[in-house]
Structure formats: structure tokens, C-alpha cells
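Co-fold these.
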Amino acid sequence: MKVVYERPESLLDVPFTYCPGCTHGIIHRMVADTLDDLGIRERTIGVSPVGCSVFAYEFFNCDMVAAAHGRAPAVATGIKRVHPDKIVFTYQGDGDLAAIGTAEIIHAAARGENITVIFANNVIYGMTGGQMAPTTLIGQKTDTTPYGRSVEANGHPIRVCELLSSLDGVAYLERVSTHDPKHVLKAQKAIKKAFQYQVDGKGFTLIELLSTCPSNWGMNPLDSLKWLEESMLPYYKPGVYKDIG
Amino acid sequence: MSNKVLMKGNEAIGEAAITAGCRHFFGYPITPQSELPAYLSKHMPKVGGVFLQAESEVAAINMVYGAAAAGARVLTSSSSPGISLKQEGISYLASSELPAVICNVMRAGPGLGTIQPAQADYFQAVKGGGHGDYHNIVLAPESVQEIIDHVRLGFDLSDKYLNPAMILLDGALGQMMEPVDFGDYKPELQEKPWAATGCKGRKMNAITSIHIDPRDMEAHNIKLQEKYSKIRESEQKCEEWMLEDAEIMVVAYGLCARICKSAIRVCREKGIKVGLFRLISLWPFPEKKLDKAIDKVKEVFVVELSAGQMIEDVKLVDNGRKPITFHGRMGGMTPSVEDISDRIELIHDRITQKVG
Amino acid sequence: MHEDLIIAGFGGQGVMSMGQMLAYAGLTEGKNVLWMPAYGPETRGGFANCTVIVSDMEIGSPIVSHPRSIIVMNLPSLDRFEDSVKPGGTLVVNTTLASRKVRRKDIDVILVPATEVATELGDLRAANMVALGAFLECKPMISFKAVKKTLQKVFANKKSVIPLNEKALERGAEIAREQRKARSAV
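Predicted complex below.
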């Protein structure tokens, strides 16, 4: 019998603990496939964040370092400066990256740290129970915006790719989505390209993956995918925001 | 021929770190430790090392965390307000059992305070500083030579116990120049099989401080406490100076201890039997020797550049046996030699019944 | 032997380097030495001062409120430090820039027009060496030989300025010598 689908070597043989319908699983899988495809698992060091993917080190089968909230790009900088020949990636959510860790992500990008950032944007804080994120959409109801996010009270959601695209240290920025197979395939390509850029020493790369949070959005997985497509895509437009080629 | 060279305290930290095999420094500018980043930005590249000016104190300590996790000997430095910002990272280092050396060239606080010498970060340094049950190894040099010795010792102890080590000094020690001898020290470099270096030929390493199951977390806490007991048992350091026949024992550390030494000389010339118990390791607190020393004197006189912090640990050891008096200056002010010697004389007069 | 000294003046008068040179020279003579700059608000407005301690003993406090000697290179420094000299101590005044009378009677005062002399010698930047020469003549805490050796080291890459600095040192010493002689004759 021919094996057509199996666990990548870069994932440990343990079940994911993410909620049903959450797209973290798909994103983990895509990163792991990339490490396998590029043959870099044994020289890769991942940095896990604080947030739902805080346990990423329990799933990835490569060396992993767990960072404090928002500090993954700084931790990754420290690692990369010790091992410039190793592949270093961070895995971060929107609260971690675009709120408490804003300084760290901007300056890692500005320095052109040769690292890859996997940025899962699900427009909400998942781990802490569904609070407003820096990326939460206007009008979106969360635990801390029960009447919907208002511009007056909370300002506007941050578009990370657009924000970082002006920085000279950045080599590659792309926003992709995980709501259907076509977009997932595109996301897979983007992730692989980002890691390849790092292998080639081109500089800072970040892939923003629009993802879902059925538990905190209060929807079933299918409706979540639909909501992502209908509500998130118009504000967070997929595309390449920078590519030095 | 002596091998001594004249060096500023802050620069000595940098050169000592290089001789200790440290090749990574991450920091953020703050007075009064600026000569150190200036020195390392010049000298790290010459030895193939990395000097990186971070965007913030918070980022700097987390770069330290990353470099330590990656197996490097790594240094950061700051001054009081910056050290406050680093506390989150230091707590993570302690929990993840990562070695690193952190220099605090103390200034006066609270708040932005002023840049003159102070010892008001004692509690922060020795009691933990950040959240959770943990301790830093804390060393308090009194001279530029000791700065060198302590930075090296800090790296060695930090690696040995997989625990952050803090060098606690102040602006005056950082700014002053004294002759130093770098000697022929060899760093005690340890194998670090736990480090994140890429998992070629072995299982993956994970470095984390999260233990979500409280049973696991308590087990981790107990493991840390056992380590702290071991450090307490083996690494207490102090200097007993002119204490052999002393009736009055001054207790001080760092810059303050040097002022006290001058004052004690003045008093000794007047025939007053006074000596100094100088703390070298602030944590572990040198309680074993202090305990014995207290037995031999009539009164204890604690001098600090704070409202009185270290005195609490002295009181715990004293446990009511001998009277303790205190003198502290704050806000960047330092007591003069005369100020201290006068106070010692008063204590002497009182215990010899000269004054009612 | 235990000597402490504060040197004070404007930034740019070579106050810090004069102190460091003394400390270096002390080190070459096998003494315990310490140099400490005033830092922070005290150094604002272009004022600079440093403390130098040279001793046969272990050096205790680096902070000296009443040193045995003070060299003041300008008027604000004279105003600020005149009262600090230990009774019986020495005060060297650069009279070119601090021309007022010294009030203290309980100290040894040496008046040297250091800036003027240095200008005559060809470079007013050597005023610090004139003052140092005068000071060492009165308080030989370090030998001239050691200071001259240190000059060679400090200016290893600028050898051309060494003769001028040596001359400045000697001229300062000469002025102090004459002044003391005149005074003892009175």
C-alpha cells in the first residue's frame, strides 16, 4: 500500500491540543512540512510565544525556546546572533505580536534580523478567553468590547504587513489566509518561500496567516471559515506586501 | 614588574566579560553605565563577538534569554530604572534555569531618581525582583579589581548553577579608575547539552518556564529551592576586616564598605575597637560567618546607601542577640568618612558608658 | 604615605587628564591609586573635577570631602573648593583665571599664572602641566621622574608635544619653588 499522507518528521507524534476547527493545526502542519521539504529540521530553532500557541514546543520536532509575551522576536534575535548558521523562526499570535510585542517585531524587522516570523492573526485573544486584540475589527464583539469595537474607544485595527512594509530590513512580507484549500496551498508556498529566504540569508521575513478562533468567536468551525472570508479579507487583504526577490 | 593597568569600573566589566569567554552583549543606553556599552561596542567585534544595542531594556533582557538558551555566555547591564524593566526577563531566566550575567550600576530612586550612587535596589536584587519564588546570585564588588573578579565569578557560578547572576555596583564604582590585574584566569566553561542549538543527532530540546499542571509547577519550584539551598550552602562570601578584637562591628557592602573602612581607620587611631563585616555575596547572604561574628561583638552598626534594606537580613541573623544601629543616606548622597567615624565614636562612648 | 587631591576647572582645561596622569604615575611607582571623576549634574555647565588618591595603604573611601590638596584652574572652582581643603593642606590656584585673593590662612597656597605661562610656552593647553608641576613641587606625592615617564606613554602617538609638556611641568615647579623661597625669606 502506498502512503499518500503522513505526519511530517518535524511534528512530534502527539495530538494537537487546539480547539476543534482552530487553524493553528494547519499552520503548524505547513511550517513542519516546510522544515521537512527544505531539510532544515535539525538546524532549526523555533520560538514559541504566549497565547494559544504557547505549547508549540510540545508539537514541533525541532529545538524550541518559549519566550515571554511579545518577546519572541527579541529571543529569536539572541538565538540567531549566537547561531547565525541556524534557522530561527518565531510563531506568534496577534496580541503577542501586534500589541505587547510591537516594539520587538518592528525593531527585529528594522534590523533585518535573518529570521522568519509566522504570524497567526485571528483578530482576538484566544488563550485568555476572547478579549479585544489589536487586530479586532471595528464593530466586532469580544469579551472586552461587548458592544462591539468602536473607533472612539479603541481606535483602528493594526495591519501588520502594511505597517512593516516600509522598513528597509524586511525581505519578504505576505498575508495569506487559511479559510479554504486554495488559500491554504498559497499559504504553504509563502511559508516555504520565507524559510528559503532565510536559508539564503536575505533578511527578515514574515508571513501573516489569517486564521480562525471558533471558540472565542462563538461560531462553529464552518461558520468561522465563512466569517474569516467575509469579514476579515476585506480589511486584511491577502497579498505580497514586500518581496526583495 | 606588575601587570597592573588603570581602568574604569564600567570598562572593567566589559573586559572581564570578554576574558570570561562572553561574546554576546545586549543592552540599552542608561547613565551611569554608558562606558560599558561603549567599551564593548568597540571591543566585541575585535574578538568575533556580538554587541547589540536593543530597542528597549525589555528587548535586551529577552535577547539575553535567547542567547543564553542558545548556549552562549551572555551579558547585559543597566542602571536601576532599566533593571526594573528587565525583571520580567530575569524571572523567566530563573525559571528556565538559564545562565546570564546582569550588571546593575545602581543609581538613586524611586522613579527616574538621579544618577548618583545608591544601594536602594538591594531588596530587588536579593529577594528575587520579578514575580515568583526565585533568587539571583548577587555579588557586590567594592573596587575595580573586584568588579573583574566578580564578573568572572558571576559567569562561572551562573553556568555552574544554571541561574542568573547579578553584579550590583553603583555609579561611583563604575566611574572610578583603579589599578587592576587581569591575571591568568581561565573560565570554567561547561558543556550545555540542554541548549537550543539545532537537534542534529539528538532529540529536540525545549526550553520553557511554563508548567501548566500545578503539580509539575510545584515540583519545578521544589527543584529550584533545592538548588538555592545548595548555593546557600556553598557560595557565601564576605570579608572580615579588623574584626579580630572588635567590639563594634560595622556591616556594609560595595562603595559604602570602602567609606566605612576609612572611617574605621580613623577610629582605630583613636583606640576604638571597631571592624568591618563586608558582604561580598549579597545572595546568598553570608549568614554563617555573620552569625559567628555577631557573637564576638557588643554592637552592630549597619551602613547603607538606602533607607535600610540589607539591615533586615542582618536582623534575621542577629535574631535579637546584639543591639543594631543604622545609618543610611539616600537619593545619591553618600556619608562622609567623618560622618561615619563620628557615629562609631558615639556608639563606642555609649557602650563604654561615657555618656549617660 | 596617603595623599588625596581634587582637581577642578572648566571642561577642556585638561583637569581629568591631569588627574589620570597622576594616577598612572603613581601606579608606575607601585602605589595604590584611585581616580574618580565627578559625574552627573556636577559636571553640567562645563565644570569638571576629579579626585586622585595615592597611598601606600589599601584605599578606602573614594569620596573625599576634605582633601589634603586641591588644584583649582578657574574662579568658580576656587569659590567652590576653597573651604574644602583640609587645614594645613595645599591649594594651587591658576591665577590667570582665578585672580581673587584666597581667604584661607590655615593652608599652604601656591599662586601660579598657569594659563599665562602655558601660553608663553606656546600652547595654553599645557596650563594643566604648569599647575601640576607647581603642585608636585609642594607635595611630592609622585616623583617628577614618574610623571615624565607617564607623559611619554600618554603622548606615545603625539611625541612632538612632550617637550612642551615637560617644560610646562618644570616651569610650574620653578614658580612654586621661587614663591616658597620668597615666602620663607619674609
